[in-house]
Structure prediction request, 191 residues.
Amino acid sequence: MVTILSVFALLLASAACGLSLAVALRVKKILDPLTQEGALGRRTGDGPEAGDVLPSIPPLIDVNGETVTPPVAESEPWVLTFQAVGCSGCKEQLPGYKKFLNDMKLEKGRVISIVAGNPEGIPFYSDALGEMGHVIPDGESTSELMNDLGVSVFPTYLVVGEGGRIITATRSSARLSAGAAHVRASSLASR
Prediction:
């Protein structure tokens, strides 16, 4: 009888461990997309990568009603980001992104931040980034661009070089420094 109870207790403990593991894996699967980085950092198939070439981008309309033509054909690097109104990671990384833009001293026309989500949340990004670049609310053309690029995780930061080739693609503002060297070298060469 003791043996049967021991076996039963062992089976019950094994089932509990299995259930705990299943719950932990499910929670990880739910939380990884929310943290924007995942446990292993960049995963393939999650959007644009360095070396990709941007698709054709039509002129965009920023929050001030200005028509913005992305500098795709130019040789100097520029920044294209995708943020979302309801994205806590976007808001947490905003100081790092702003520091990157301040350090790079890019002209306003070389910084485009596309913001998806409820239009009522756009002023937050416009107030934070409007002096540094163009803030573009999500619309038909921007949704098509995000679709073409495979952007499904926010934030997504791109440093774009000559011919629309992506130099740096990251989900972390802290990792933008990899593209900073290209921006600095280009700025020095144009002086």
